[in-house]
Amino acid sequence: MTNTYQPHSDNRFTFGLWTVGNTGRDPFGAPVRKALSPVEIVRLLAEVGAYGVNFHDDDLVPIDATPAARKKIIADFRKALSDTGLVVPMATTNLFGDPAFRDGAFTSNDPHVRAYALQKTMNAIDLGVSLGAGIYVFWGGREGTETDAGKNLLDAQKWMREAMNFLCGYVRDQKYALKFALEAKPNEPRGDIFLPTTGAMLAFIETLDHPEMVGVNPEVAHEHMAGLNFTHAVAQAWDAGKLFHIDLNDQSFGRYDQDLRFGSHNLKSAFFLVKFLEDVGYTGSRHFDAHAYRTADEDDVKAFAAGCMRTYLILKEKAAQFWEDAEIQGLLAEIVADDGAMDRFKGKYSPAKSKALKAEAFDRGALGRRGLPYERLDQLVVELLMGVR
Protein backbone atom coordinates (compact mmCIF):
# COMPACT_ATOMS: atom_id res chain seq x y z
CA MET A 1 0.00 0.00 0.00
CA THR A 2 1.21 3.48 -0.79
CA ASN A 3 0.99 6.40 1.61
CA THR A 4 -1.38 8.35 -0.67
CA TYR A 5 -4.51 7.53 1.29
CA GLN A 6 -3.37 7.73 4.90
CA PRO A 7 -6.14 8.49 7.42
CA HIS A 8 -6.00 11.49 9.73
CA SER A 9 -8.12 12.72 12.62
CA ASP A 10 -10.32 14.92 10.41
CA ASN A 11 -11.66 11.76 8.73
CA ARG A 12 -13.15 10.63 12.07
CA PHE A 13 -12.59 6.94 11.33
CA THR A 14 -13.55 4.75 14.27
CA PHE A 15 -13.76 1.05 15.07
CA GLY A 16 -15.39 -0.86 17.91
CA LEU A 17 -13.50 -3.01 20.38
CA TRP A 18 -15.60 -5.87 19.00
CA THR A 19 -14.48 -5.33 15.40
CA VAL A 20 -10.71 -5.66 15.24
CA GLY A 21 -10.99 -7.60 18.50
CA ASN A 22 -13.15 -10.28 16.87
CA THR A 23 -11.55 -13.70 17.40
CA GLY A 24 -13.06 -15.30 14.31
CA ARG A 25 -15.49 -17.49 16.22
CA ASP A 26 -18.72 -18.27 14.38
CA PRO A 27 -21.69 -20.62 14.90
CA PHE A 28 -19.77 -23.42 13.19
CA GLY A 29 -16.26 -22.95 14.56
CA ALA A 30 -14.15 -22.01 17.56
CA PRO A 31 -11.96 -18.88 17.77
CA VAL A 32 -8.96 -18.75 15.44
CA ARG A 33 -7.29 -15.63 16.87
CA LYS A 34 -6.27 -14.82 20.41
CA ALA A 35 -8.49 -12.43 22.33
CA LEU A 36 -6.97 -8.96 22.56
CA SER A 37 -7.35 -6.78 25.63
CA PRO A 38 -8.95 -3.34 25.25
CA VAL A 39 -5.50 -1.78 25.65
CA GLU A 40 -4.04 -3.98 22.89
CA ILE A 41 -6.94 -3.05 20.60
CA VAL A 42 -6.43 0.67 21.23
CA ARG A 43 -2.76 0.34 20.36
CA LEU A 44 -3.56 -1.66 17.21
CA LEU A 45 -6.02 1.02 16.05
CA ALA A 46 -3.51 3.76 16.76
CA GLU A 47 -0.94 1.87 14.68
CA VAL A 48 -3.23 1.81 11.62
CA GLY A 49 -4.23 5.47 11.99
CA ALA A 50 -7.76 5.34 13.41
CA TYR A 51 -9.29 8.39 15.08
CA GLY A 52 -11.31 6.66 17.78
CA VAL A 53 -12.56 3.50 19.42
CA ASN A 54 -16.10 2.61 20.49
CA PHE A 55 -17.32 -0.10 22.83
CA HIS A 56 -20.17 -2.07 24.35
CA ASP A 57 -20.02 -2.05 28.13
CA ASP A 58 -19.15 -5.75 28.22
CA ASP A 59 -16.42 -5.32 25.58
CA LEU A 60 -14.52 -3.12 27.97
CA VAL A 61 -15.48 -4.57 31.36
CA PRO A 62 -16.61 -8.24 31.55
CA ILE A 63 -20.14 -8.52 32.88
CA ASP A 64 -18.98 -10.48 35.94
CA ALA A 65 -15.89 -8.37 36.75
CA THR A 66 -15.26 -7.51 40.40
CA PRO A 67 -15.28 -3.83 41.42
CA ALA A 68 -11.50 -3.91 41.75
CA ALA A 69 -11.01 -5.50 38.34
CA ARG A 70 -13.45 -3.02 36.78
CA LYS A 71 -11.54 -0.08 38.23
CA LYS A 72 -8.21 -1.36 36.88
CA ILE A 73 -9.58 -2.16 33.41
CA ILE A 74 -11.04 1.32 33.04
CA ALA A 75 -7.87 2.98 34.33
CA ASP A 76 -5.70 0.99 31.92
CA PHE A 77 -8.06 1.81 29.01
CA ARG A 78 -8.07 5.49 29.89
CA LYS A 79 -4.26 5.52 29.96
CA ALA A 80 -4.08 3.79 26.56
CA LEU A 81 -6.36 6.47 25.12
CA SER A 82 -4.16 9.18 26.58
CA ASP A 83 -0.97 7.53 25.32
CA THR A 84 -2.25 7.10 21.75
CA GLY A 85 -4.51 10.14 21.36
CA LEU A 86 -7.51 8.01 20.41
CA VAL A 87 -10.95 9.20 21.57
CA VAL A 88 -14.27 7.50 22.41
CA PRO A 89 -17.01 9.15 20.33
CA MET A 90 -19.67 6.47 20.90
CA ALA A 91 -20.63 3.79 23.39
CA THR A 92 -23.42 1.23 23.63
CA THR A 93 -24.82 -1.54 25.85
CA ASN A 94 -24.66 -5.28 25.24
CA LEU A 95 -28.31 -6.25 25.72
CA PHE A 96 -28.12 -9.40 23.60
CA GLY A 97 -25.25 -11.63 24.76
CA ASP A 98 -26.19 -12.67 28.28
CA PRO A 99 -28.79 -15.45 28.72
CA ALA A 100 -30.91 -13.02 30.75
CA PHE A 101 -31.78 -11.34 27.44
CA ARG A 102 -32.84 -14.52 25.63
CA ASP A 103 -36.31 -13.01 25.00
CA GLY A 104 -35.21 -9.42 24.62
CA ALA A 105 -34.21 -6.61 26.95
CA PHE A 106 -36.54 -3.62 26.76
CA THR A 107 -39.24 -5.79 25.14
CA SER A 108 -38.84 -8.93 27.24
CA ASN A 109 -42.09 -10.36 28.57
CA ASP A 110 -40.44 -10.49 32.02
CA PRO A 111 -40.65 -7.12 33.86
CA HIS A 112 -37.58 -8.08 35.92
CA VAL A 113 -35.53 -8.37 32.72
CA ARG A 114 -36.86 -5.04 31.45
CA ALA A 115 -35.86 -3.36 34.73
CA TYR A 116 -32.42 -5.00 34.70
CA ALA A 117 -31.90 -3.82 31.10
CA LEU A 118 -32.60 -0.24 32.17
CA GLN A 119 -30.21 -0.55 35.12
CA LYS A 120 -27.46 -2.02 32.94
CA THR A 121 -27.93 0.72 30.34
CA MET A 122 -27.83 3.56 32.88
CA ASN A 123 -24.56 2.20 34.28
CA ALA A 124 -23.16 1.84 30.76
CA ILE A 125 -24.22 5.37 29.86
CA ASP A 126 -22.33 6.64 32.92
CA LEU A 127 -19.23 4.75 31.78
CA GLY A 128 -19.49 5.95 28.18
CA VAL A 129 -19.93 9.59 29.15
CA SER A 130 -17.02 9.37 31.59
CA LEU A 131 -14.79 8.33 28.68
CA GLY A 132 -16.00 11.10 26.37
CA ALA A 133 -18.84 9.53 24.36
CA GLY A 134 -21.31 12.01 22.85
CA ILE A 135 -23.41 9.41 21.00
CA TYR A 136 -25.06 6.38 22.54
CA VAL A 137 -26.23 3.63 20.17
CA PHE A 138 -29.07 1.18 20.75
CA TRP A 139 -29.15 -2.03 18.74
CA GLY A 140 -32.01 -4.30 19.82
CA GLY A 141 -30.55 -7.61 18.75
CA ARG A 142 -32.90 -9.67 20.92
CA GLU A 143 -35.90 -7.34 20.66
CA GLY A 144 -38.10 -9.52 18.49
CA THR A 145 -39.74 -12.90 18.03
CA GLU A 146 -39.48 -16.31 16.46
CA THR A 147 -43.22 -16.81 16.90
CA ASP A 148 -45.67 -13.95 17.17
CA ALA A 149 -47.77 -16.13 19.42
CA GLY A 150 -45.26 -15.46 22.17
CA LYS A 151 -45.44 -11.68 22.38
CA ASN A 152 -48.08 -8.96 22.26
CA LEU A 153 -46.72 -6.69 19.54
CA LEU A 154 -48.40 -3.56 20.88
CA ASP A 155 -47.06 -4.23 24.38
CA ALA A 156 -43.58 -4.67 22.94
CA GLN A 157 -43.81 -1.31 21.17
CA LYS A 158 -45.06 0.29 24.37
CA TRP A 159 -42.24 -1.20 26.44
CA MET A 160 -39.63 -0.05 23.92
CA ARG A 161 -41.08 3.46 23.98
CA GLU A 162 -41.18 3.52 27.78
CA ALA A 163 -37.54 2.41 27.94
CA MET A 164 -36.33 5.10 25.56
CA ASN A 165 -38.37 7.77 27.34
CA PHE A 166 -36.97 6.60 30.70
CA LEU A 167 -33.38 6.73 29.46
CA CYS A 168 -33.89 10.13 27.83
CA GLY A 169 -35.15 11.31 31.20
CA TYR A 170 -32.09 9.87 32.92
CA VAL A 171 -29.69 11.62 30.55
CA ARG A 172 -31.52 14.92 30.98
CA ASP A 173 -31.54 14.52 34.78
CA GLN A 174 -27.77 13.86 34.78
CA LYS A 175 -27.26 16.83 32.42
CA TYR A 176 -25.20 14.67 30.06
CA ALA A 177 -24.41 16.10 26.61
CA LEU A 178 -25.47 12.84 25.00
CA LYS A 179 -27.66 11.88 22.05
CA PHE A 180 -29.14 8.47 21.27
CA ALA A 181 -28.88 6.71 17.89
CA LEU A 182 -31.16 3.74 17.14
CA GLU A 183 -29.83 0.97 14.91
CA ALA A 184 -32.21 -1.14 12.82
CA LYS A 185 -31.76 -4.72 11.62
CA PRO A 186 -34.36 -6.99 10.03
CA ASN A 187 -33.36 -10.30 11.63
CA GLU A 188 -30.54 -12.25 13.29
CA PRO A 189 -30.15 -13.27 16.01
CA ARG A 190 -33.96 -13.17 16.37
CA GLY A 191 -36.14 -14.54 13.60
CA ASP A 192 -37.69 -11.08 13.26
CA ILE A 193 -36.37 -7.97 15.01
CA PHE A 194 -38.72 -5.13 15.94
CA LEU A 195 -38.31 -1.85 14.02
CA PRO A 196 -36.37 -3.62 11.25
CA THR A 197 -35.39 -0.71 9.00
CA THR A 198 -34.08 2.83 9.31
CA GLY A 199 -37.44 4.13 8.11
CA ALA A 200 -39.23 2.22 10.88
CA MET A 201 -36.85 3.73 13.43
CA LEU A 202 -37.48 7.25 12.13
CA ALA A 203 -41.23 6.76 12.52
CA PHE A 204 -40.79 5.34 16.04
CA ILE A 205 -38.63 8.30 17.14
CA GLU A 206 -41.49 10.72 16.47
CA THR A 207 -43.59 8.92 19.12
CA LEU A 208 -41.06 9.60 21.92
CA ASP A 209 -41.27 12.27 24.61
CA HIS A 210 -37.96 13.84 23.50
CA PRO A 211 -37.52 13.06 19.79
CA GLU A 212 -34.93 15.82 19.52
CA MET A 213 -32.53 13.67 21.56
CA VAL A 214 -32.87 10.58 19.38
CA GLY A 215 -31.64 9.85 15.88
CA VAL A 216 -30.50 6.80 13.94
CA ASN A 217 -27.36 4.77 13.35
CA PRO A 218 -27.96 3.09 9.99
CA GLU A 219 -25.70 0.18 9.02
CA VAL A 220 -24.84 -0.91 5.48
CA ALA A 221 -25.16 -4.64 6.17
CA HIS A 222 -28.48 -4.37 7.95
CA GLU A 223 -30.27 -2.57 5.11
CA HIS A 224 -28.64 -4.82 2.50
CA MET A 225 -29.83 -7.91 4.37
CA ALA A 226 -33.36 -6.71 3.62
CA GLY A 227 -32.49 -6.02 -0.03
CA LEU A 228 -32.75 -2.25 0.42
CA ASN A 229 -30.70 0.63 -0.94
CA PHE A 230 -28.60 1.83 1.98
CA THR A 231 -27.80 5.26 0.57
CA HIS A 232 -31.53 5.95 0.21
CA ALA A 233 -31.99 5.16 3.93
CA VAL A 234 -29.08 7.44 4.84
CA ALA A 235 -30.54 10.24 2.70
CA GLN A 236 -33.90 9.91 4.45
CA ALA A 237 -32.20 10.07 7.85
CA TRP A 238 -30.16 13.11 6.81
CA ASP A 239 -33.23 14.88 5.43
CA ALA A 240 -34.98 14.30 8.76
CA GLY A 241 -32.00 15.71 10.69
CA LYS A 242 -31.51 12.31 12.34
CA LEU A 243 -28.22 10.95 10.99
CA PHE A 244 -26.42 10.96 14.35
CA HIS A 245 -23.98 8.11 13.59
CA ILE A 246 -23.30 5.58 10.83
CA ASP A 247 -21.96 2.02 10.61
CA LEU A 248 -19.87 1.23 7.54
CA ASN A 249 -19.21 -2.29 6.30
CA ASP A 250 -20.30 -4.39 3.34
CA GLN A 251 -22.77 -7.18 2.70
CA SER A 252 -24.17 -9.51 0.07
CA PHE A 253 -27.88 -8.88 -0.42
CA GLY A 254 -30.19 -11.36 1.30
CA ARG A 255 -27.54 -13.25 3.28
CA TYR A 256 -26.71 -13.55 6.96
CA ASP A 257 -25.02 -10.56 8.59
CA GLN A 258 -21.52 -10.71 7.06
CA ASP A 259 -19.95 -7.43 8.30
CA LEU A 260 -17.46 -7.42 5.44
CA ARG A 261 -14.64 -4.90 4.99
CA PHE A 262 -16.04 -1.61 3.74
CA GLY A 263 -16.30 -1.47 -0.05
CA SER A 264 -15.14 -5.06 -0.50
CA HIS A 265 -18.34 -6.35 -2.12
CA ASN A 266 -20.65 -3.62 -3.45
CA LEU A 267 -18.12 -1.09 -4.64
CA LYS A 268 -20.56 1.10 -6.60
CA SER A 269 -22.96 1.23 -3.63
CA ALA A 270 -20.05 2.21 -1.38
CA PHE A 271 -19.10 4.96 -3.83
CA PHE A 272 -22.57 6.53 -3.84
CA LEU A 273 -22.65 6.33 -0.03
CA VAL A 274 -19.29 8.07 0.37
CA LYS A 275 -20.28 10.61 -2.25
CA PHE A 276 -23.49 11.39 -0.38
CA LEU A 277 -21.76 11.79 2.99
CA GLU A 278 -19.11 14.05 1.50
CA ASP A 279 -21.59 16.05 -0.61
CA VAL A 280 -23.81 16.92 2.36
CA GLY A 281 -20.91 17.61 4.71
CA TYR A 282 -21.56 14.87 7.28
CA THR A 283 -19.25 15.59 10.23
CA GLY A 284 -19.95 12.62 12.52
CA SER A 285 -17.88 9.51 13.03
CA ARG A 286 -17.35 7.16 10.12
CA HIS A 287 -17.56 4.00 12.16
CA PHE A 288 -16.44 0.69 10.67
CA ASP A 289 -18.63 -2.03 12.19
CA ALA A 290 -16.95 -4.84 10.30
CA HIS A 291 -14.89 -7.95 10.94
CA ALA A 292 -11.82 -9.43 9.27
CA TYR A 293 -12.22 -12.77 7.52
CA ARG A 294 -11.98 -15.81 9.77
CA THR A 295 -8.86 -16.75 7.81
CA ALA A 296 -7.03 -13.62 9.03
CA ASP A 297 -4.14 -13.57 11.47
CA GLU A 298 -3.27 -10.47 13.49
CA ASP A 299 -1.32 -8.86 10.63
CA ASP A 300 -4.23 -9.45 8.28
CA VAL A 301 -6.59 -7.89 10.84
CA LYS A 302 -4.46 -4.76 10.66
CA ALA A 303 -4.66 -4.90 6.87
CA PHE A 304 -8.44 -5.23 7.17
CA ALA A 305 -8.71 -2.12 9.37
CA ALA A 306 -6.37 -0.12 7.18
CA GLY A 307 -8.28 -1.29 4.11
CA CYS A 308 -11.61 0.01 5.42
CA MET A 309 -10.17 3.50 5.83
CA ARG A 310 -8.13 3.41 2.62
CA THR A 311 -11.15 2.42 0.54
CA TYR A 312 -13.21 5.24 2.02
CA LEU A 313 -10.48 7.76 1.16
CA ILE A 314 -10.12 6.42 -2.38
CA LEU A 315 -13.88 6.69 -2.89
CA LYS A 316 -13.83 10.18 -1.42
CA GLU A 317 -11.30 11.14 -4.09
CA LYS A 318 -13.49 9.50 -6.75
CA ALA A 319 -16.47 11.52 -5.50
CA ALA A 320 -14.49 14.74 -6.01
CA GLN A 321 -13.56 13.56 -9.53
CA PHE A 322 -17.26 12.96 -10.26
CA TRP A 323 -17.95 16.68 -9.80
CA GLU A 324 -14.87 17.65 -11.85
CA ASP A 325 -15.63 15.37 -14.81
CA ALA A 326 -16.90 17.58 -17.65
CA GLU A 327 -18.71 14.78 -19.49
CA ILE A 328 -20.52 13.58 -16.36
CA GLN A 329 -21.50 17.12 -15.46
CA GLY A 330 -22.71 17.74 -19.00
CA LEU A 331 -25.04 14.76 -18.82
CA LEU A 332 -26.32 15.84 -15.42
CA ALA A 333 -27.04 19.32 -16.76
CA GLU A 334 -28.97 17.75 -19.64
CA ILE A 335 -30.95 15.54 -17.27
CA VAL A 336 -32.03 18.32 -14.90
CA ALA A 337 -32.46 21.03 -17.55
CA ASP A 338 -35.21 23.51 -16.58
CA ASP A 339 -36.52 26.16 -18.96
CA GLY A 340 -38.33 27.96 -16.13
CA ALA A 341 -41.77 27.45 -17.65
CA MET A 342 -42.98 25.54 -14.59
CA ASP A 343 -41.64 28.00 -12.01
CA ARG A 344 -45.10 29.38 -11.39
CA PHE A 345 -46.25 25.98 -10.11
CA LYS A 346 -43.35 25.36 -7.72
CA GLY A 347 -43.34 25.77 -3.97
CA LYS A 348 -46.21 25.94 -1.53
CA TYR A 349 -49.84 25.45 -2.36
CA SER A 350 -52.16 28.36 -3.06
CA PRO A 351 -55.70 28.38 -4.50
CA ALA A 352 -54.55 30.51 -7.46
CA LYS A 353 -51.63 28.19 -8.17
CA SER A 354 -53.83 25.10 -8.10
CA LYS A 355 -56.35 26.71 -10.42
CA ALA A 356 -53.64 27.66 -12.90
CA LEU A 357 -52.08 24.21 -12.77
CA LYS A 358 -55.41 22.48 -13.43
CA ALA A 359 -55.87 24.72 -16.47
CA GLU A 360 -52.38 24.11 -17.89
CA ALA A 361 -52.21 22.16 -21.15
CA PHE A 362 -49.43 19.53 -21.11
CA ASP A 363 -48.14 17.67 -24.16
CA ARG A 364 -48.26 14.18 -22.67
CA GLY A 365 -46.84 12.61 -25.81
CA ALA A 366 -43.79 14.85 -25.75
CA LEU A 367 -43.23 14.11 -22.07
CA GLY A 368 -43.28 10.39 -22.80
CA ARG A 369 -40.88 10.63 -25.75
CA ARG A 370 -38.07 12.27 -23.82
CA GLY A 371 -35.25 9.84 -23.15
CA LEU A 372 -32.77 10.20 -20.31
CA PRO A 373 -29.10 9.20 -20.76
CA TYR A 374 -28.82 7.17 -17.57
CA GLU A 375 -27.01 4.30 -19.34
CA ARG A 376 -24.29 6.67 -20.53
CA LEU A 377 -24.10 8.34 -17.15
CA ASP A 378 -23.83 5.07 -15.24
CA GLN A 379 -21.15 3.78 -17.61
CA LEU A 380 -19.11 6.91 -16.94
CA VAL A 381 -19.41 6.27 -13.20
CA VAL A 382 -18.27 2.68 -13.71
CA GLU A 383 -15.29 3.88 -15.75
CA LEU A 384 -14.49 6.47 -13.09
CA LEU A 385 -14.40 3.75 -10.44
CA MET A 386 -12.30 1.51 -12.68
CA GLY A 387 -9.71 4.25 -13.02
CA VAL A 388 -9.93 4.80 -16.76
CA ARG A 389 -11.27 8.36 -16.65
Task: Please tell me about this protein's structure.
This protein is α/β, with parallel strands linked by helices and 389 residues long. The chain has two domains: 9-319, Divalent-metal-dependent TIM barrel enzymes (TIM Barrel); 326-385. It is 47% helix and 9% strand. The chain has helices at 17-20, 38-48, 57-60, 67-84, 111-130, 153-174, 198-205, 220-225, 230-239, 267-280, 298-324, 326-335, 351-359, 364-369, 374-385; strands at residues 13-16, 52-56, 90-92, 135-139, 144-145, 179-183, 192-193, 214-216, 247-248, 286-288. The strands form two sheets. It has an eight-stranded parallel beta sheet. It has a two-stranded antiparallel sheet with strand order 5-7. Helix 9 (230-239) packs parallel to helix 10 (267-280). The radius of gyration is 23 Å and the shape is globular.
